[in-house]
Automatic annotation (TrEMBL):
<keyword id="KW-0519">Myristate</keyword>
<keyword id="KW-0479">Metal-binding</keyword>
<dbReference type="InterPro" id="IPR011992">
    <property type="entry name" value="EF-hand-dom_pair"/>
</dbReference>
<comment type="similarity">
    <text>Belongs to the recoverin family.</text>
</comment>
<dbReference type="InterPro" id="IPR028846">
    <property type="entry name" value="Recoverin"/>
</dbReference>
<dbReference type="InterPro" id="IPR002048">
    <property type="entry name" value="EF_hand_dom"/>
</dbReference>
<keyword id="KW-0449">Lipoprotein</keyword>
<dbReference type="GO" id="GO:0005509">
    <property type="term" value="F:calcium ion binding"/>
</dbReference>
<protein>
    <recommendedName>
        <fullName>EF-hand domain-containing protein</fullName>
    </recommendedName>
</protein>
<feature type="domain" description="EF-hand">
    <location>
        <begin position="168"/>
        <end position="203"/>
    </location>
</feature>
<keyword id="KW-0677">Repeat</keyword>
Length: 281
């Protein structure tokens, strides 16, 4: 039911999300060739800067993942990597792999490592490329391991990992919504919507590995939580969103299209074609 709800939501509202600011840069270009964004109105301001070295490292990891998914998913299903169907199939495969290596909604470090081995083939990489990919993946895991228990929430790590995959912003948002809508009700609670935004923000902070090396992990986690709560609150401020404190995907799409893109322009970074694979970088 959850997948059906997500697919329906994507079909009904994806165009509304994607059409808004389609040609707009999601964050301010950095003079050094990277990107940066900030959320200053939350209780603890969040500032994220991805410099040129971060973008190059991320491109290596995304390319390695794309090669693997092309062989394991796209070739078998005869799907185009640039199509919505191809992107959705790859995202579902990522979800399946992580769920298979998790237990009770929790993904241990060993399960994360096994998932990454299945998803990112590093055979044939030189030492530099292998180290770069491994470092970014480890940064991703430990950014989500806030309690330092060597385990993470599997839904959040799936949604954070989804940024690395191909596909439009709309496709990834619909996928992430579906991942958190575990009961297939077609709506997320305030807490789930907070987790929805938090997963993406956590991953983006993890990917700013070089530029954020001196950042305190605890302080970053507090700022990410505050920014995610602030963003979710903005969605619920729309008077139409009052169904027992639950928001549908259409609610999110409408909020974004009617000005939410000025509150959360960083969501544009979900589409790698706008920055990681931008030829100007």
């Amino acid at each position: 039911a959850g997948a059906a709800a997500g697919a329906a939501a994507g079909a009904a509202a994806g165009a509304a999300v994607g059409a808004t600011a389609a040609s707009r840069k999601s964050s301010a270009p950095d003079p050094s060739g990277g990107y940066e964004f900030s959320i200053d109105d939350s209780s603890t301001p969040l500032r994220v800067r991805l410099d040129a070295s971060d973008v190059r490292a991320l491109r290596r990891l995304c390319d390695a993942l794309a090669r693997s998914l092309k062989k394991k998913v796209l070739a078998k299903k005869k799907l185009d990597a640039n199509s919505d169907a191809g992107a959705a199939a790859c995202l579902q495969y990522v979800k399946t792999v992580f769920l298979a290596n998790s237990d009770g909604g929790v993904c241990a470090k060993s399960g994360f490592d096994e998932s990454c081995r299945e998803l990112v083939e590093m055979d044939g990489m030189d030492d530099t490329e292998r180290n770069t990919c491994s470092t970014l993946l480890q940064s991703l895991f430990f950014s989500f391991d806030r309690a330092e228990q060597s385990s993470v929430d599997v839904c959040e790590i799936i949604n954070g990992f989804s940024i690395l995959c191909g596909g439009s912003k709309s496709t990834k948002l619909a996928f992430a919504f579906d991942v958190l809508d575990t009961k297939g009700k077609g709506a997320l609670s305030r807490r789930s919507l907070w987790r929805f935004f938090r997963a993406f923000l956590t991953a983006l902070c993890a990917f700013s590995f070089e530029s954020g090396a001196d950042r305190d992990p605890h302080e970053t986690g507090v700022a990410v939580d505050a920014a995610a709560i602030w963003t979710a609150t903005k969605v619920f401020e729309k008077k139409e969103v009052d169904r027992a404190n639950r928001a549908t995907f259409n609610d999110i799409a409408q909020w974004y299209g009617e000005g939410g893109y000025t509150k959360a322009p960083w969501l544009e970074l979900l589409d790698l074609r706008k920055w990681v694979h931008d030829d100007s970088q």
